[in-house]
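[job 4471] stage=fold_predict status=RUNNING
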Amino acid sequence: MKKSIILTILFFSIFSIFSEENNYSVLIQGVQAAEKKYTEVKAYHILVPTEKEALSIREQILSADDRMGIFSNFREAARKYSTCPSGKDGGGLNWFGKGEMVPEFEKAAFNLPNGQVSEPIKTQFGWHLIYVSAKR
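[job 4471] inference complete, writing structure tokens
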């Protein structure tokens, strides 16, 4: 419900700008993209035993100046710190759909914008940092 309200406000806010230029198709494409429901996520993760460790690693990762640097830092930190076997490959999980991960992890991954590092996420396995590279 909240997302629908935000999208409606966004639509009407932008509508006035585009209506002056008669560029409705660009506006409609933007709204459709915002409403798209993704069924799969391509993500990377780091699994550690404590929230404190996850926060420290996140800070190191975010010290990069740009998105590519953050991604590089994330993969290196996964190799160095992650207790999950995927860590040796930079934390890569490949594509996964809904119902394939524990609920806390899934919710965070599907809600995280591409190219950002999550806050620490607690699951039964420990504390995760997640980086989503793509959605489809």
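[job 4471] summary: The radius of gyration is 18 Å.
[job 4471] exit 0
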